[in-house]
Amino acid sequence: MNLCRKAAVLCHPVTMKSKYSQYYDQSLIHSYYAFVKNMTLQELKIRNENKKQLTTLNIVIVVLCTTIILENLLVLIAVCRNKKFHTAMFFFIGNLAFSDLLAGSAYIANIFLSGPRTFDLMPVQWFIREGTAFIALAASVFSLLAIATERYIAITKVKVYGSTKTCRMFLLIGACWVTSILLGGLPIIGWNCINDLPECSTVLPLYSKKYILFVVTIFSLILLSIVILYVRIYLIVRSSHQEATNSPAYALLKTVTIVLGVFIMCWLPAFTILLLDSSCRIQFCPILSKAEIFFGFATLNSALNPLIYTLRSKDMRKEFLRVLCCWGMLQSGRPADRCLVPLKSSSSLEHCSHKHEHQTTPIMQDCTTCV
User: Sorted alphabetically, which SUPFAM superfamilies does this protein's record hold (predicted)?
Assistant: First the structure.
C-alpha cells in the first residue's frame, strides 16, 4: 500500500524540469506533502478540509506572538530612548529583542499561511515563509554568541568598546544578520529537496534533511561555545576580587546566563524533533506529525526574554514604566512632557560607574554595561 502511495506521488511530472523552474509550480507542494506524510493526494485533501479553522493551539500561539511583538518593541523603544542604554551590551540586547520580534512576526505569518493555505502557496513563497523563521532563529543564536563574546572581552580587557571602537560592535551586529540571512536563505538558493523526494524532511517537506541536520549542528556548536565562554567568565569572576560575586558585573553575568538557559530549555525539544526528522520517517516516528507543538513551545522563549530583563534590571523596569506612562498619557489626551524628562533616579549603571571609578580590576572597570 505504501509503495502504491509513493508511486502515485512519484508520477508527478517534475523530474524533467529544472529545480528553479519549479519554484512557481503550485501543484508541487501537494505532491511533496503527500509523499512525506505517507498519504495519497486525496487523503491529503480530505485532511486539509478538516483543518480550515484555526485550532486552539494556533489561537494561543497567535496571542503569544502578539505579546512577543509588543514586549520586544518595548525593549527596543527603551534602548533607543534612554542614553544609559547606549552601550555595547544593551545594543546587543536590543539586537536580540529585534530578532525575537521578527520571530514573533514570522510565526504569526506562518500560522495564517499554514494548514489548507499552504497549498495556495508557490514553492518560492513557501521558502520565504519558512526561511524568515529560520533567519529569526539564527539571529537569536548569533545574538547570544555576540553577547557572550562581549561579556568575555569586557571581563578580560578594559574599555574595549571605547568611542573609537564602536564600529566593531556594529560590525559584529551586521555580521550576525548577514550570516543569519545567508543561513536561512540556503534552501531558496538551491539547497532543498526538489527533484530528490527521498531526501525531503517530514516536518518541512521542501527542505532537505541534510540542510536541517546542518543547521541544527551549527546551532548546537554555537550554543556549546557560548556555554564554554560563560564557564570561563564565571571562573575568571570567581578567581578575581573577593567582592566580585556581589558586583553589578556579576549580576549581569547571571542575567545573560539565565537568558541562555531559557533559550536552551525552550528550543531543545524543537531541536530534538528536527534531529529525529533527519533520520526517521513518519511511519516509524509518528511524533513528527506533532512538530507544531514543539515549535510553539520554542516560541515561548521570545516572550520570556523581556520578562527576564524586567525582573533582573531596575533600569529597564523604570524605562518600561516610563514608556508605558507616555503611551497611557497620549491615549488619554494628556500632555506627555513629564515622560520625556531623562531618568534622574540613581540606577545600577550610575552606582556602578561611581562606586568603582578608581578600581583597577578589569571586572570592576567594565561598568558601562551593568544590569
Answer: Family A G protein-coupled receptor-like
